[in-house]
Write the structure tokens for this entry.
Amino acid sequence: MTGPSLPLVLASSSPRRRELLARLGLAVSYAVLEVDESRRPGEPPAVHVQRIASAKARAAAALHPHAAVLAADTSVVLGDEVFGKPRHPADAARILTLLRGRAHIVLTATTLMWSGQEVSHLEAAKVTFANFSDELLHWYVATGEGDDKAGAYAVQGKGAILVARVEGNVQGVVGLPLARLPGLFAALGLRLQRQGEGLVVRPAGGAALLPRAGPAPWD
């Protein structure tokens, strides 16, 4: 199929998500919007991340009505506690201390909007931390790498030294599961199509069902 491609807007300030999309050669614009990401009392973690991803997408779509808008939100979950970005270095140290030597769940909700339609996907991965030393913990906090990341660490960076095992899609842990994008676009009647060495978004002439994710690795 030929014809003009659709503009694609990423409703996120995350450099990790921008880097992941750049690997696909997609031409992407960015919309950085103020969205209240506070968790509501009693709100389940999965509901929370999906609500925030949807809010980001809707806010950006209101400003870019002719574009396909992609948004995502990631949270780290340990028991009943949900960790977003640390407020300061002491908070990062607290979070990493709680996660140390234990397994936690990383939830990433991805929402795509186009032409008044909306579709979402929830990705879950299980991450097990090593039982690292206090010295390593404080070294990592001092690097500042985890300052703007849910759970106060980056599995794709220096934070890999803290991680013993990942069960599930590591791209979801980073913040954007690329393998789910073709299904999200297809669900809204769009497709990713080759153009030169990269990809563009074009209407596909019909919607398709979003493929189901496989069973969670801890089921």
The mean pLDDT is 89.
